[in-house]
Amino acid sequence: MLEKPNLQEIVNKLLENRTQKELHKMTGVPQSTISCLKNGKDKRQITYDNAFALINAFEKDKLKSDKSKTPSDN
Question: Rounded to whole angstroms, what are the CA distances from 22 to 5, 57, 67, 72, 73?
């Protein structure tokens, strides 16, 4: 069984290297929704598309981070 993603943790991780406005431009998720998630406010209003966009951005960041940790073959 898949675990329910913790969108607050995902948003906070995504905001470590960008602003809420930048995350909005990157994902299309309204800045107000990003702010609510960041602050642990009611998450029942988030749409499937917005949740998917945030999870997708998180996975892309994770892949970039994993690639940067790989030793180079020089």
Answer: 22, 12, 22, 30, 33
Burial level of 54, CB count in 10 A (0-12/13-18/19+)? buried
User: What is the structure's pLDDT at 68?
Assistant: 78
- What is d(CA 11, CA 37) in angstroms, rounded to the nearest whole number? 7
DSSP 3-state assignment of 73? coil
- Record the pTM: 0.80
pLDDT tens, residue by residue, 30-44: 999 999 999 998 777
